[in-house]
């Protein structure tokens, strides 16, 4: 079977991402041997008999309905949003009801056995329902010969910009396999966000680590970072689209840029310069392993103190025992992890840190586990993700001598009991906190907001409050979140900014600041190109403007629009008007003269 790249006729493969390739650009080779469906060739399209599936849809491409299911991390969620955006842009409808769909797109996760088992169950269900299937994500990329992937289309993590082509061919009854890693997918692809107010921004793919238990490295590969300029441009774009939270996503945020000669602090400082000064959009820094932030702790702490950055960081430790960390090849010690936590807690007021623990890693003794329990007790982390060890095929840890299953489960239960006994939010009652509201709670009653420390606050209010910031008084605390009541909102600043940006009024020569019009950074003398002008320096200033009548607002606009007064016209403008007037009079005289001659005959 030829490589798919050789089947794409003369340059068609360079078609813009998200657009369908011409039908004559894709070669189809009939398949003669069903047992050879799983090929060593990473990229191919083959015809499939699909004996167990319904006949391929005869509808016009782009008119079918697609169901997308996502497993795993925020990076996977971002990939799904990009794929959904391209499909939607091409005309496909998206549904959350599997039975309504003409095709299922399943974006998979290979971190843990349960998530891969859930994928297998969903594939079986899809086959039973005779649904064409496209499997994306880390499972097909890292385990391309998996039996469950036989007879279905697969797309790799760096081929998501070709999802329209893959879906179209699959709906025709063809089996598509695109797994070759090439350049990073563009950040400006069409995107349909699961939450309109949250942008998940991948800053790099892969990592520099070689953890012995990790299967994700097999799928995402070595570190590949986006440039600072491309990420900053994406931040500008999503802010203009109304996004209120930007999540930096990565397999290891701390390793960012080491492959292109920059580092995480350089990126963070560039991004925070673009965030609106009224704190209407917040930045959340993604998961970072200890080794790569140890040398930048003070710089990262400075960014975390920024008013537009959540004082929250996810730093996985995995174990409190150095011997276990060595067996995991984590490249740091428990003491170094403590240095990260102690330094950030000291330098960043209200700092909140989440961590991960793997219970029952091969070779873990009772003493090793007790050191882990001691670490968790010492810091009383508000969030701890506790997992039992799952051997992942193809990883070094899968060949190590395992701890007995009953001991692993016992340790997991013990550590969970220790963690759940903490009361991290005690003392927050009656405190007033600024929160950013971005989603509806699962109970369908409350809205979900987060404090600057990313503590979840549940409040009641209309859904029109989504995407706003507010002051909330904490009324009670629970184990996982706190409850509050809104006492003041800060939504007017952003809405006024958006309204003025939509009018696109240029700056006049008599305007000395950016507070009265929408303008470019260059025309306002800003150093940062493309930075949005701040209409109002503070909330009180906005409140003062609310008292203006519509007549007064109209008068202000009439002042700032150049060319709205004859006195501002130049010599050329006046000469053109005079010329038009003279021409009109001449034509009128000629018409009258012709009319008179006709009447006198």
Strand content: 15-25%
Give the strand order of the largest sheet, numbering strands 1, 2, ... along the chain: 1-7-6-5-4-2-3
User: Roughly how much helix do the residues carry, as a percent range?
Assistant: 25-40%
**Radius of gyration, Cα only, in angstroms?**
30 Å
State the end-to-end distance.
90 Å
Number of DSSP strand runs: 20
Uncertain stretches of 5 or more adjacent residues: 1-40, 49-57, 492-568
* Secondary-structure content class: alpha/beta
Please tell me the overall pLDDT.
79
Number of helices: 17
Dominant shape: globular
Instruction: Describe the sheet with the most strands.
Output: 7 strands, mixed
Produce the secondary structure layout.
Elements: H1 4-7, E1 43-47, E2 65-70, H2 74-90, E3 93-95, E4 103-108, H3 113-128, E5 133-137, H4 138-142, E6 153-155, H5 163-171, E7 174-178, E8 198-202, E9 204-205, H6 216-220, E10 224-225, H7 228-240, E11 245-249, H8 264-272, E12 282-284, H9 297-304, E13 312-314, H10 322-328, H11 334-347, E14 352-359, H12 366-379, E15 383-388, H13 405-420, E16 432-440, E17 447-450, E18 456-459, E19 469-477, E20 482-489, H14 492-503, H15 539-545, H16 550-560, H17 571-600
Parallel strand pairs: 2-3, 2-4, 4-5, 5-6, 6-7, 8-11, 11-12, 13-14, 14-15, 18-20
Antiparallel strand pairs: 1-7, 9-10, 16-17, 16-19, 17-18, 19-20
Helix pairs in contact: 7-8, 9-11, 12-13
């Amino acid at each position: 079977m030829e490589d798919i790249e050789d089947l794409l006729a003369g340059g068609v493969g360079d078609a813009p991402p998200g657009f369908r390739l011409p039908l004559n650009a894709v070669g189809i080779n009939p398949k003669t041997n069903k047992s050879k469906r799983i090929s060593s060739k990473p990229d191919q399209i083959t015809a499939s008999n699909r004996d167990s599936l319904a006949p391929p849809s005869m509808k016009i491409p782009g008119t079918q309905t697609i169901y997308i299911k996502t497993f795993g991390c925020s990076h996977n969620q971002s990939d799904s949003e990009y794929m959904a955006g391209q499909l939607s842009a091409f005309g496909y409808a998206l549904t959350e009801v599997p039975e309504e769909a003409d095709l299922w797109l399943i974006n998979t996760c290979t971190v843990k056995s349960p998530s891969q088992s859930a994928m297998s169950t969903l594939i079986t269900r899809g086959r039973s329902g005779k649904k064409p299937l496209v499997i994306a994500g880390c499972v097909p990329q890292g385990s391309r010969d998996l039996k469950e992937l036989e007879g279905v289309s697969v797309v790799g993590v760096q081929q998501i910009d070709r999802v329209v082509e893959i879906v179209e061919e699959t709906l025709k009854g063809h089996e598509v396999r695109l797994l070759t890693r090439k350049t990073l997918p563009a950040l400006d692809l069409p995107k349909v966000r699961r939450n309109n107010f949250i942008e998940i921004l991948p800053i790099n793919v892969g990592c520099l680590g070689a953890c012995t238990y990790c299967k994700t490295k097999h799928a995402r590969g070595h570190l590949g970072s986006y440039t600072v300029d491309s990420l900053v441009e994406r931040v500008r774009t999503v802010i203009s689209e109304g996004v209120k939270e930007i999540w930096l996503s990565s397999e290891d945020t701390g390793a960012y840029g080491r492959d292109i000669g920059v580092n995480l602090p350089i990126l963070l400082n560039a991004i925070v310069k673009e965030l609106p000064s009224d704190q209407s959009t917040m930045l959340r820094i993604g998961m970072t392993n200890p080794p790569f932030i140890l040398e930048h702790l003070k710089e990262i702490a400075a960014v975390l103190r920024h008013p537009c950055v959540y004082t929250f960081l996810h730093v996985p430790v995995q174990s409190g025992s150095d011997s276990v960390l060595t067996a995991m090849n984590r490249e740091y010690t428990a003491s170094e992890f403590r240095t990260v936590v102690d330094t950030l807690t000291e330098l960043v007021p209200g700092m909140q840190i989440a961590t991960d623990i793997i219970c029952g890693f091969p070779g873990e003794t009772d003493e090793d586990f007790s050191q882990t329990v001691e670490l968790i007790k010492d810091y009383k982390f508000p969030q701890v993700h506790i997992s039992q060890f799952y051997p992942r095929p193809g990883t070094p840890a899968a060949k190590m001598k395992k701890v007995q299953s009953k001991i692993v489960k016992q340790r997991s239960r013990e550590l969970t009991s220790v963690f759940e006994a903490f009361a991290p939010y005690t003392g927050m009652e009656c405190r007033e906190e600024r929160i950013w509201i971005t989603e509806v709670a699962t109970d369908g009653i409350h809205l979900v907001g987060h404090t600057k420390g990313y503590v979840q606050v549940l409040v009641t209010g209309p859904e029109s409050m989504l995407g706003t910031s507010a002051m909330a008084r904490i009324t009670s605390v629970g184990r996982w979140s706190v409850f509050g009541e809104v006492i003041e909102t800060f939504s007017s600043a952003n809405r006024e900014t958006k309204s003025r940006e939509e009018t696109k009024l240029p700056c006049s020569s008599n305007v000395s600041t950016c507070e009265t019009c929408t303008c470019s950074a260059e025309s306002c003398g800003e150093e940062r190109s493309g930075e949005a002008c701040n209409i109002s320096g503070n909330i009180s200033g906005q409140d003062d403007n609310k008292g203006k009548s519509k007549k007064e607002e109209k008068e202000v606009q009439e002042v700032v629009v150049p060319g709205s007064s004859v006195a501002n016209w130049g010599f050329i403008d006046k000469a053109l008007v005079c010329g038009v007037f003279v021409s009109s009079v001449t034509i009128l005289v000629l018409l009258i003269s012709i009319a008179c001659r006709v009447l006198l005959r």
